[in-house]
Amino acid sequence: MRRSTTPQAAQKPAPRPINPKFKSRLPGIMAEICDRLIVIEPAIEQINEQLREFLDYLEFEIVKTEMEIKQIEWMDKVEGPVLSDARAWLKELQQLKSDFNVEAMTSPPRTIRSMVDRVRDLFGVKGCEVFDLTA
């Protein structure tokens, strides 16, 4: 007997009974989540523009500071505090940029949408269909 080597699609487990109180509250909870998404999603999109503008200016300041450091290093008399201050400032700017991830800051609506879709699929819950959560 020969076995097929083609991978089979993973089958979804059949839904199991859930706590009756949870089952009765689930449509309301999902509707509340969807209502909140309608409010926060446009606000996140609007702030996204300002966050990206801030990053553009921050990148400019980083490049400017790097150029200043190179200029200081070429001077005949480099004063230690001037160079070390510039390097410390550059390090602060670079750390701010590395900590400042616009995608992570603006992803909660996408994460919530994904959770809503999974809950809807897993529990077969109705109530969010009036909202276009896939757009």
Tell me, briefly, the overall form.
Answer: elongated
Calculate Rg over CA atoms: 26 Å
Run of helices and strands: HHHH
Number of strands: 0
Helix content: over 70%
Distance, first to last CA? 48 Å
Overall average pLDDT: 83
Largest sheet: none
Unreliable spans are 130-135
Secondary-structure-based class equals: mainly alpha
Number of contiguous helices = 4
Relative strand content: under 5%
Describe this structure in words.
With 135 residues, the protein is an all-alpha fold. Helices cover 71% and strands 0% of the residues. It is built from four helices and no strands. It has helices at residues 20-74, 80-99, 102-106, 108-123.
What is the fold's blueprint, element by element?
Blueprint: H1 20-74, H2 80-99, H3 102-106, H4 108-123
Helix pairs in contact: 1-2, 1-4
Brief rundown of the structure:
The chain is 71% helix and 0% strand.
Write a concise keyword list for the protein shown above.
mainly alpha; 71% helix; single chain; 135 residues; 0% strand
